Records
---
Amino acid sequence: MQIIHTVKQLRLALQGQSPIAFVPTMGNLHAGHLDLVNLAKQQAACVVVSIFVNPLQFGANEDLASYPRTLAADCEKLAAAGASIVFAPTVAEMYPDFDGQNLNQSLTVQLPAMANDLCGASRPGHFAGVATVVLKLFNIVQPQVAVFGKKDFQQLLIIKELVKQFNLPIQIIAADTAREASGLAMSSRNGYLSSAEKVQANQLHATLQTLVEQIKLGPKDLDFSALEKQAAHTLQTQGWQVDYVAIRSATSLKAASAQEQEWVVLAAAKLGATRLIDNISFKL
Ligand code: PAF
């Protein structure tokens, strides 16, 4: 496995390689990321994994500085998983006008209204930062296939929209969320949880599961807004600070109608200082 830090070196290494399957990450890899790599390996012999903590997608008061950076351990895991190339650029490599302070990325992707909803409402600019770096990475790696996790469900839909509206010749594959035995969705941010919080953290998934069961019983006579409030209240009484609990169409992310065929229930909430997200998508 090659570890490459510059765009120039990566382009050289990828010359003549086709097809390429790509897994973009911010590192601090867990079993969920390795599932993405395994899916990528089923698509192409050449698997590129990027590790880049993208400053453009972090808000001013978010965890950019403390975000775990574990490149050596990540590379060991990726070598064992059978990745071909790790692309781990510096901030200056990804943002050519970076002056040590400001990224000066004055060209960014402008996103549809959906990006201002749910996580986008409490993280303004987050998804524009994600879409911009993913477009840059797509241009650098030029993969035929790219794999993203369903855990970041809103991100996944935005990337699919990016590919569609910018006519990118890339197939997007969605990987199921990897979970701890408790049901807690695997996330690099789980490392911020105290051991007591980690025991409690499965409540987020459990609350979503209850919602799914309620909807599956028959959505026709349900008051979705009341159900969302009830689920949020359950989490609040357990000590969570709830950002949102939402019942949506899994294709548009708009409020679900009773006739919906593809559903997703999503939640974001803080346990102590750690903001966690989770979702369950299902068909009826
Ligand atoms: O999901 C992530 O880890 C990031 O948002 C991504 C897609 C690597 C872009 O920085």
---
Amino acid sequence: MDPEDDTLAILIAPHPTLKARARPVGAGDGEQVRALIPRMFDAMYKAPGIGLAAPQVGVKLRLVVIDLMPDDARKPIVLVNPEIINASEELATREEGCLSLPGQYADVTRPARVKVRHHDEAGIRREIEADGLLAACLQHEIDHLDGVLFTDHLSVLKRNMIMRRLAKEMRLKGK
Ligand code: GNR
Ligand code: NI
């Protein structure tokens, strides 16, 4: 709409970058990562969504931003090179959506609790232990870094149904 809008565009499936494995952020990536983080939060809040992985904005780096906005207050989390170091045997099922599959939702089953090791925006090594929505969101975002979408956790039948419906809806919207 606005030709001056510099909001990062979010890639929509099927796009090859969404299927690619992202590479770890390294020492030489500091400048790009520092510039990207506020723009990723901006695109995520505008969408709106609760998480965004760099490959969704066309950057094949292992970088994620998350904000569940508890009580409508911003609580931004930056994850550089996140790794799941523990996942519970207990599973949980919840409805997921994805900004790269707009308008599509399905129940996804994943480990109920995870422990994630990462670096923050200052390069400090951190760990998060999560359950509930945050656990699902962390796994969903780390999947993006490995070229995996929530539809890859569904049956072939459900996945094909969603992919066809998305293609049709994008065609109708003229996107
Ligand atoms: O906004 C999002 N909501 C969501 C809901 C349940 C599980 C995961 C998510 S992440 C998603 C934003 C997104 O696509 N991140 O990659
Ligand atoms: Ni997503």
---
Amino acid sequence: MAVMTASMTDRLQDEIRSLATERKAVLLAHNYQVPEVQDVADYVGDSLGLSQQAAATEANVIVFCGVHFMAETAAVLAPEKTVLIPDLDAGCSLAAAIDADALARWKDENPGAVVVSYVNTTAEVKALSDYCCTSGNARQVIEAVPADRQILFLPDMFLGAYLERVTGRKMKIWPGECHVHAGIRPDDVAKTLDEHPDAELLIHPECGCASQCMYAATESPALGARTHVLSTEGMVKRARTSPRREFMVATETGILHRLGKEAPDARFYAMSERAVCRYMKMITLEKLRDSLLEMRHRVTVEPELAARARGAIRRMVEIA
Ligand code: 13P
Ligand code: SF4
């Protein structure tokens, strides 16, 4: 692949900005996007923030620099808008962990249970769900379900285990995982704690290390005081306001660019350099430019399916 110089990047970003104006498009980018895509976007944020932006925008076109389920969620929330994704292959291993047939069978085995789906799911799965949530509001969503109801939580087992711990609520949990976050192990945490003894730990609840970190944090008040399990946007807010200025970050490494911009006086270290989502990295400046030029790739959700998925997604956007 040809290396892009700074002036080529600037030229492409200028081209993208003027195409976005011409098309009356808003560019939404997830915190895991490559730096040059984050830098050209109108809004950079987590799954919840991006959904809220999609629901509220007055633009005619939403270009989603993220993965497919995110663009699909935007299409459900804003059916009158044109939603584009620069690369249709930008999928998600977690969203692929359960399909609608498997969920329908799980519901049949558990009549009367309330289904809470993480936003990393297909529209078909959301259409069979009562609530949708993101890492930014999962706890509040679980707490909104009446205490006497059984909950089926899907598809992330690490987020599910974390939620059981913080809410004290026993749930049935689908055994899915995100390969990127599951790969961040307790050993990575132990090693980085030795290397940066004063750093604060910012941990995404999809991580394989999250439950053990929470356990270690309750055993050691000193460690507990500097351990925070947060969505990606929660990490940005924490880095801005924490009195500590050194942070170990356990999530996809794309967040480091955003964190560096939002808290330039702080130092951030990846808990694992291996934590790279190849799907998020499929979106490049060239593909974003081509997406605006050719108005591709359009993401649509069939109206009847969208109507069924919308209730769970709206509840997610409202419980913020
Ligand atoms: P948030 O940005 O909502 O924390 O989600 C992380 C993620 O893995 C999205 O795919
Ligand atoms: Fe999906 Fe994991 Fe990539 Fe997020 S980081 S988009 S959960 S594969």
---
Amino acid sequence: MHTLETSLKTSLKTSLKGRSLLTWLDYSESEIRFLLDLAVQVKTEKRRGERHSRFAGKTLALLFEKRSTRTRCAFETAFGEEGGHPVFLSTDDIQLGAKESIEDTARVLGRMFDAIQFRGFKQSTVETLAAYSGVPVYNGLTDSFHPTQALADIQTLEENFGPAKGKKLCFIGDGRNNVARSLMVISAKVGVRFTIITPKQLYPKADLVKTCRDLAVTSGGEIQITENTEAVAEADAIYTDVWTSMGEESQKEERTRLLSPYQVNQSLMEKSNRKDTIFLHCLPAIKGEEVSSDVIDGPQSRAWDEAENRKHTIKAILLASLSAG
Ligand code: CP
Ligand code: NVA
């Protein structure tokens, strides 16, 4: 039997089958480990040119309130190339909380689709879709979390340094944004030593930091929040994201003022005191703002591998929750 099919038949499959992914807070370390290992198998299959039809006859609704390149393309191609039928629905096309409640939209989509992906503003919307649709719902980014991104980030870290446990990952930029928050949660779950470097005004909320610190006690991870860029010392990976996230455009000027001293450039990379430190970015990047061109386009950057890994990790999430196996 094929190894990937064997993986899907393991006992963990039971706990992941039919599951939504709203935030990693709901997942155990071993469930996340299972998905990471599955993503490696998916990537290997792809490299070998193997073709399968594990989603044949299945449908996936892709709901977008905000723009997307990677997330949309990853879901659409991962599902479609295995024989599934993804349907892209932007809020210009469908009723979603405008003329029809989110609850009713969820009920209707759940009657027609096997699963739903949502990208948009409120975390409560993706939670309502999951509560009322009766099918697995995947969070493709909200103002609060970006969980599918964080799984690809850990896969990329592991491709360079082996198992994530004990590795040092530093996020520098807007410490309260969706990407920073999801990285903090997944790091706490899998035992990464995670640091957010950000000005005091952009520290993440204390309740989530406390939750993550408590989780890190069990996993062997560590959560540090600081204003000091010297904290990148000995980092395995230095990560940044745009200073102004989608939906926050009115705060661009203030963000630029606060975060300019936190640009990831060559001199910041050198503060790690390691030549093998890698650079990560969820993308899209604004070169010359949060990162200099020489870093993101340079030899330490793994941003393009990371973008590709979005597809492999998303396929792993879909396989675990939707395969018949
Ligand atoms: N990283 C990411 O989510 O990219 P998109 O906004 O293009 O989907
Ligand atoms: N923090 C960014 C991530 C984009 C993938 C945003 O929300 O715009």
